[in-house]
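Subject: Re: docking follow-up (magnesium ion)

Dear J.,

Thanks for your patience while I sorted out the input files. As discussed at Tuesday's group meeting, I've set up the holo structure prediction with magnesium ion included as the bound ligand rather than trying to dock it afterwards. The sequence and the ligand SMILES I used are pasted below, so you can double-check that they match what you have on your end before we go further.
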Amino acid sequence: MPNDPYLDASVVWRIKSGTLDLHEAGYRTTKEAILSSGLAMEVTGLISAGKEADVYLALYRDAPIAIKAYRLYRSSHRGGGPVKLDSTGWLAAHEFEMTRQAWKGGCRVPAPARRVENMFSMRYLGDENGPAPRLHEIRPENPRALLDEVLRGVEALAGAGVVHADLSDFNILVHDGKPWFIDFSEAIRVDRTGSAPWMRLEEARVALDRGMGALRVYFGRLGVEVESEPFVSRVLSSLDRFGVLHD
Ligand SMILES: Nc1ncnc2c1ncn2[C@@H]1O[C@H](COP(=O)(O)OP(=O)(O)O)[C@@H](O)[C@H]1O
Ligand SMILES: [Mg+2]
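The structure tokens for the complex came back this morning:
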């Protein structure tokens, strides 16, 4: 993480004394930033306000698009202590690249369009009544079939070189009856550009186990068992091009 070190004392002093302003951009400022960056011609509204980013509905020419704008700062609210800041702008670049990699590989993810600084635009999943629901919000008619689609999707992502490290029923949207993967901010590359093969497969295992754990809870409530261990092992061995895993 960049900015892990605490701020220099002189900077902290300038923040405290009010000579350095670290206000988070509000709705209006972000809207202006979106318009002036040329990512959209009109900002229609807010789809989601998250911990690290907000997602806006906007228009590019007349077509709806979604814009994810990362917050600029992450601050600790422990009163009196050093102020820890973390510029999250770089997360937009990471998420954009990961989504693009998955999209190039033919996966069901919103097609990313452009990135400017801490914001990027992508296809809007939804219709005039609102954004596509998250898996969390729906009770699928046929959970078994949906689970199969999700697992195929996770395998397709791995085939495209991406492991989604924050997989859950919150980061899968159901659009036109199909699962769509979103929120690649923590995703890892598992093809040639990642870290050393063994390390990247270990990271991938941890990420996949965690994601499958979340899905197991969701589908378990619907009475469908997720056999995550054999699935994770199969995905990992498909990624193990150098044979570094000996189970
Ligand atoms: N391309 C999109 N189309 C429609 N809605 C979206 C899109 N991307 C994100 N959303 C909505 O915004 C919410 C937050 O997006 P997400 O990328 O998961 O951000 P966060 O980092 O805050 O979790 C999602 O749960 C979804 O409802
Ligand atoms: Mg999310």
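A couple of observations from a first look. The longest helix spans residues 197-221. The first strand starts at residue 42 and ends at 49.

Let me know if you'd like me to rerun anything.

Best regards,
T.
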